[in-house]
Amino acid sequence: SPIDDGTSVSGALGAGLRASKACKSGELLVSLPRSCQLSYDGSTEPNLLQLISKVPDELWGAKLALQVLKERILGPDSPFHSYIDNLPMGVPGIPLFFSPDAIRALEQYPPLSEQVKKRCRWLLSFSSEHLSGLPGSSADPFQGTPVDANILGWALAMTTSRAFRVRGPQHPAALLPLIDMSNHSFAPNCEVKPGPAGSVEMVASRDISAEEDLLLSYGMLDNTFLLLDYGFLVPSNPYDTVLIRYDPIMFEAGQLLAQGQGAPPDDAPDLGSAAFQQQLLTEMQLLGHKANLELAFGRSLQRCSPRLLAVARLFTAASAAEVRGRSADDLGAWDQPLSLINEVKALRMVAGVAAMLLTRFPTTLEQDRRALAGGPAGGPKLPPDVRAAVQLRAEKKAVLSEVLQDIGHRIRGLASQTVPHGAAEAYRESVTQGPGGQKRKFSTSSRKPKMRNGKGFG
Ligand SMILES: C[S@@+](CC[C@H](N)C(=O)[O-])C[C@H]1O[C@@H](n2cnc3c(N)ncnc32)[C@H](O)[C@@H]1O
């Protein structure tokens, strides 16, 4: 049996695992042999493999979902029968199952509502194109049992909320019975790793007392991903982000908002249109056929992603000379400002973009908080799915508010140093403090740009 003496099933956050005795750090709690891991890796069923091959690789959860359905349909003939029988009937917190009201509430944050709609569309189109004609055909892996978008949606929710990729993303995901009853914490006390002979092990990552919940970290995931795949979010999640798509107009609007200026003169060049800017934007993969337009604000990103900072520095550079010799990586490094003046302008632009995003939400953070507390006059309690949607968008607004506060603080620190007397020394002081107050390496704009190790942008 994979069940070790140190674990027992308990009932927090749905079901969970709890230590029934004290465990030492490094102690093996669960060892799951290869034969107890549910995956399509090594499957020899040609019809099923054929169907799985029609699912795009990025939808790895859906590939595994087809295997889960096959086992479910096999019933008592499946070695995973009791495991599948004990899976939840649904994961109501997952937006795939939200009511239209909750989806509307989610639309305030399009990066998530678009993902949800994309998944729904995929479920419907895959079912009609590849599943509806299977019963009675020789290509049917499901023994004549009809499989539709609803049941595929259930299986997808099971895999996205429970599957592990212990051996890395190049290996198919697997469901790990018992281990997958562990709930999530960013301060976990257990970890899962590959064991000998294809087994998977869950071990204590610190000393654990008897009766403590056994918790794993599902990853440093932001709330969008947690809600989309797992159906819950973490308030004040340190890894939460606000995603935006790159668009020069957004930076222009951010600049105007931050500086309180009117529209630029008609003959002003478009932001980002100069040749040196185009070249660096291409290097940042924001232009060209490999373009990836995703930028982010976030608590763990030192407030914004390096590319967002890089764009703001580039757009506020006075001329090509100011960025000469700088790589795209240099431009996005907090510790490598172009100049004091440019840094103030760039941070104002970043703050302007964050402020603009905040004003784009139809409701304010305060309104969301009141709705979550039960409405202005102790109004009706929100249904759970609407509540989750409102909570998600409130968390995003909180991230932006913190970014604004933090950047404002940083700008004030820099702006107070613009007086000529002693400016260099004072500036040196101000930029050696990162947004979180941590010491950063100072470098002047005239020094040779540092070679970076090509980590690239994510
Ligand atoms: C891998 S399963 C864990 C076992 C699950 N609680 C059960 O009842 O089967 C992941 C699911 O557990 C719940 N969950 C796990 N960690 C959570 C947390 N920190 N807060 C809220 N729900 C959590 C979510 O419903 C999530 O989709």
UniProtKB/TrEMBL annotation:
Q: Where is the SET domain?
A: 1-219
Database matches in InterPro entries: Rubisco_LSMT_subst-bd (IPR015353), Rubisco_LSMT_subst-bd_sf (IPR036464), SET_dom (IPR001214), SET_dom_sf (IPR046341), SETD3_SETD6_MTase (IPR050600)
Keyword Signal listed: yes
Q: Which segments show compositional bias classed as Basic residues?
A: 438-458
Q: Where is this region: Disordered?
A: 424-458
**Keyword Signal assigned:** yes
State the Gene3D superfamilies in the record: Rubisco LSMT, substrate-binding domain, set domain protein methyltransferase, domain 1
Q: Which UniProt keywords apply?
A: Methyltransferase, S-adenosyl-L-methionine, Signal, Transferase
Q: Which SUPFAM superfamilies match?
A: RuBisCo LSMT C-terminal, substrate-binding domain, SET domain
Instruction: List, alphabetically, the Pfam families matched.
Output: Rubis-subs-bind (PF09273), SET (PF00856)
What is this protein identified as? SET domain-containing protein
In which organism is this protein found? Answer: Coccomyxa subellipsoidea
